[in-house]
Amino acid sequence: MKIIREKRIRAGKILEAEFYPVFPSGRRVPERRRPTREEQKNLNDANARKKIVRLINANFDEGDLAIHGTYRDDEMPESLDQVRRDLTNYIRRLRGWRRRHGLDDLKYIYVIEAKVSKRTGTLRWHYHMVASGMDRDAAERLWGHGDWTNANRLQPNEFGLEGIAKYLVKSPVAGKRWAQSKNLKQPDVRKRDGKTSPRQLQRMCTQLVDDTDYWERRYKGHRLLKVEPKYNDYNGCWYLYVTMRRRE
Fold this sequence. Notes:
By secondary structure, the protein is α+β, with helices and mostly antiparallel strands.
């Protein structure tokens, strides 16, 4: 026997609803045979993208910063550990500046990247960071290493900050997808089992996909962004993914 779970994830202004089958014990119904290594990697990557999109939407908005920093040639680190130490010191300086100016504690998420220079053939380190809003000039100056450092105001679109979130996880170094401050708020996740029947889910996936009024009545106070139904041939079940945005 299978029942339908509705999982709602609220991250900032974005509300997602996932519908999928589970057994009465709560265990998910298998969606495929045992995945290959490549399939598992793709699944892990997709889950990482979802996680960071939600985390960033839950903690950052317009007015916060996207910071991109590099190193001068004569200061290029020789190891990933050195880059991490430099970022730790940079974060300490950012926090100190914020304290002196009466701002809340810093929130941040960053990733480290490394690319081989086409000009010199050397490994060039750089980082990308999403951080709490502050003076842009100060954020750039406090890095202190790069011949190019840029701090931009975040510009959310209707999907929030999904674009920059996916950019951050496009090419992690040494398997480390990102690092984050401990004061980040987690997205609100709630689950409801059995409130939607398999037959009702099938109707939602086949007849109500384009019915904007239905979805905006179901999730009051929200505007519909997208509905993505999927039928799984392996287990014979329907799956549904809905994205809404809270009305201003």
